Structure formats: C-alpha cells, structure tokens
Amino acid sequence: MKVVSADWVLPVEGDPIEGGAVAIEDGVITAVGSAAELGAGEHFADAAIVPGFVNAHTHLEYAVYAGFGDGLSFGPWIAMHVARKSRLGRADMEAIARLGAAECLRSGITTVGDLAFSGATAHACADLGLRGIVYLEVFGNDADDARRQFEEKRAYVEPVLSERVRLGVSPHAPYSTSTAVYEYAARLGLPLATHLNESRDELDWLLHGAGPWQAFGELLVDPLEESGIRSLAAAGLLGPDVVAAHCVEVDAEEIGLLARHGVSVTHCPRSNALLGCGIAPLAELRAAGLRVGVGTDGVSSVPSHDYFEELRAVISLARAREQRADALSATEALELATLGGARALGLDAGIGSLVPGKRADL
C-alpha cells in the first residue's frame, strides 16, 4: 500500500482535509483521511491533493494550431482548419496528439473526452497514460460513407483500446452531419459526443440557410429549419449517452429538452469567447439539473490546454454573464472540473472524486 499526503486533501465528495492523506493499493483508493491516521507516506509540502481534472471536451490532434486563424469569425475559422487537416497524415496527427496529451498531464488533467478526426488521440493516450473516451468523428450526408469513415478509424484505434482508453463516436455537428448519419452513430450503441448550438451564425444557417456561412455551403449539410437541439430531439436522438459541447445559443425550451433527455453538456468558455460565439448560460444549465463538465476545446481555438486558465475563465465569465460576484465559486468550479466532468462522460463510478473504491487519478 502507498500513502501520499499534503497540506490539504480536497476530496470533492466530502469536506477538505487539512493535513490529509490518501492510501492507494493497485491504483485504487483504499482510504482518505488525516495523515495522523494514515501516515504521511510521500508528503507534498505547500500543496493540495485533488482529483485529476477531467477535460471533458478536447481535440488533442490540434495541439500545435495555437494562434492560427485568431480573429477570424467562426465560419472562416472552420474552413481554414478543414483545409489544414487535409494536409496531415496519421503520423503527423499522432505526434501532435502526443504533445496535446503531455500538455494535459502537465496541467493536472488525467482524463479527456476527445473528439478525434483521425483517432490518433487513442494512441497518444495509450502511450502517455492518459485516461479517456476517444469519440471518432464522422461527417457528411451519407450514412454509408459515415460507416466507412468510422470503421476505418476504428480499425486504426482498436489495438490500443482498453479499460482506460475507451471508444466513442462523434457525429460532428448538425450543420456538418445529416440526421441519417446521427441515426447511424446512435445505432452503434457507443458513447456519443457532438457540437450543438455553438454560435449565432450556426443557427442562421440551420434555421434559414442565411448569414455568413452561405460562403461555406459546400462544407455543410442542408438547413434544417430548426436548431440542432430541436432537430435531434424530434428525431429521438437525444439521450443520456449524448454529450453536447458548447450549448451557447440555447433558449429555455432547448435547455428543457436537454434536461428531459438526460443529455450532458461540456462548457468551453475560453473557446466560445475567443471565437466570438458568446458565453454559455452555465447557471441555467446547472439549474435545470444537467450534468455539466468543463473542456478546453482544441488549441485551434484556445491558446493552450492550461486547465487552470480554463477554470479561471469558467468563474469570471459565469460572473460576467450573471452580473453577480457570487454567481460561481472556486469550490463549484473545482467540482465542475472533476466530478462534474466525470459525470458528464459517464465515468463517475470510477473517477472524479477522492473516495475509497475509485481510481487513484490525482
């Protein structure tokens, strides 16, 4: 048995413990308490032991893109990165994803929910010891083509899948992926992640076929005449296995639809702010009972995988939106970053807090 201790232990499920310690055996937490009870073991001075952060929405294959397209609006930014990805092979993607995984680990992130264009993130996680669900992205109008995309990527990641590195599917977004492709993805019975209601320009296209995205129509599916959330709800494609990233441009009815169907939400405040998309209604999402985690998104839209910077943005932008200094506390932000993210990804039985029986991801 190994014991680690610090000036503070913050279990998240339970009160902070001054002079706390965590006992670990075979990678599993066996006890949490005071160092006086459990022994000091390996002591970390001037430190706190917390659950490993859960970065619930990432694109690690974009880890070297920081600064490219800064200042572009959402549509031109997407078009630029679509072109950039087309010039990279799997070896490139693996090298980039390994960098992203290393940056996550350096920032205290031990689990990711990664939406992977190629699947390289699965190899990076397996190599570097990062826990994650790797959601393989599919795009387009045709379900048969989406099946071919998915099966090719699954064959590539299959050798490195494990209890720690799990498989999911990501029909990219309602503006880039048809309802038929969403239906195919749902039939796979895997964890599913997608991008929903991220920007006003997205809604202008989906509702009316109008706005700035008309210039990029060849990259998009036909307008739905309703929002992505409403469209997926009407098609019976929302449920507890669905993780919806962003949810910035949502009204009360759409929040209700997400809540009634048990959908999880990943909140990416720096990405939404830097792309000019707005600030997601975090208070309303939480009040509706939704499981909410925090994600950095890709370094294509943020400067880094620095999770402390992300949490500062979570707090400051929540307070700015609500115009209240008490709108979100540091304690609440820590919960979102750990147990909240674990719940959003459906992994909270094993991670997200420091309690006996959970994995010693800390």
Describe the structure concisely for a colleague:
The chain folds into two domains: 2-49, Urease, subunit C, domain 1; 53-344, Metal-dependent hydrolases (TIM Barrel).
Overall geometry comes to globular
Secondary-structure element string? EEEEHEEHHEHEHEHEHHEHEHHEHH
CA-CA gap between termini: 16 Å
Portion in helices: 25-40%
Q: At the fourth CATH level, what is the homologous superfamily of the largest domain?
A: Metal-dependent hydrolases
Domain unit count: 2
CATH class value of the largest domain: Alpha Beta
Instruction: Tell me the CATH architecture of the largest domain.
Output: Alpha-Beta Barrel
Poorly predicted sequence stretches spanning 5 or more consecutive residues: none
Kindly report the CATH topology of the largest domain: TIM Barrel
Which range does the strand content fall in?
15-25%
The structure class reads alpha/beta
| DSSP strand count | 13
Instruction: Report the average pLDDT across residues.
Output: 96
Radius of gyration: 20 Å
Count of DSSP helices? Answer: 13
Biggest sheet descriptor: 5 strands, mixed
